[in-house]
């Protein structure tokens, strides 16, 4: 095991896995991800895993749109499903102020190249006859809204890291050691390590 790496990523949640993925895509190889338990078993595991692009900040909206496209890219690269479900999102305005906000969001979304649609009350009824339109002022439709299966998503993230031959150091069982990393995963081989070896991390 190396005593040093160029980049050490702490935490194997969706953010850590994403950083690892993008670094390798840019040619970095001397990278390690450290995780104290199972990959994506913390906050990522119980997140809602929703996919949406509606945001007041255009930079965040772009990032969310990129993330949505990345899930499909990961599926193509690994041959594994992320469990993508995109039935679309219907945003309703129950006040004039909210309708004005949706109009601003619509303009921003069109500027960013998103295929969204402003809806009248009658059009909302056509989209979903079960919606009670009394008191509504209109709405907006985004066909890309949906969610991913967080379990399938984390499995795909793990597979992708292995395909890029990256090192992921992880702890299987918590113990009394002050240096809890006990083994290193490299490709499909598992190499056991002593605590003394782990202290060089």
Average pLDDT confidence is: 77
| Strand numbers in spatial order across the main sheet | 1-2-8-9-10
Stretches where pLDDT falls below 50 for ≥5 residues? 175-179, 184-201
Helix/sheet category: alpha+beta
Main sheet, how many strands, which sense, barrel?
5 strands, mixed
Instruction: Identify the CATH architecture of the domain at 1-49 and 149-201.
Output: 3-Layer(bba) Sandwich
Percent range for helical residues? 25-40%
Number of helices: 6
The percentage of residues in β strands lies in 15-25%
* CATH domain fold name of the domain at 1-49 and 149-201: FAD/NAD(P)-binding domain
3D shape: elongated
What is the H/E order? Answer: EHEEHEHEHEEHEEEH
Beginning-to-end CA distance, first to last residue: 9 Å
Number of strands: 10
What Rg do the Cα atoms give?
Answer: 22 Å
CATH class of the domain at 1-49 and 149-201: Alpha Beta
Describe the protein in words.
- With 201 residues, this protein is α+β, with helices and mostly antiparallel strands.
- The chain has helices at residues 14-25, 58-78, 96-111, 121-127, 150-163, 195-198, and strands at 7-10, 31-35, 50-51, 89-93, 117-119, 138-142, 146-147, 167-170, 183-186, 189-192.
- It has a domain at 1-49 and 149-201: FAD/NAD(P)-binding domain, CATH 3.50.50.
- A 5-stranded mixed β-sheet has the order 1-2-8-9-10, covered by helices on one side. A 3-stranded antiparallel β-sheet has the order 4-6-5. A two-stranded antiparallel sheet has the order 3-7.
- Helix 1 (14-25) runs parallel beside helix 5 and helix 2 crosses helix 5 (150-163).
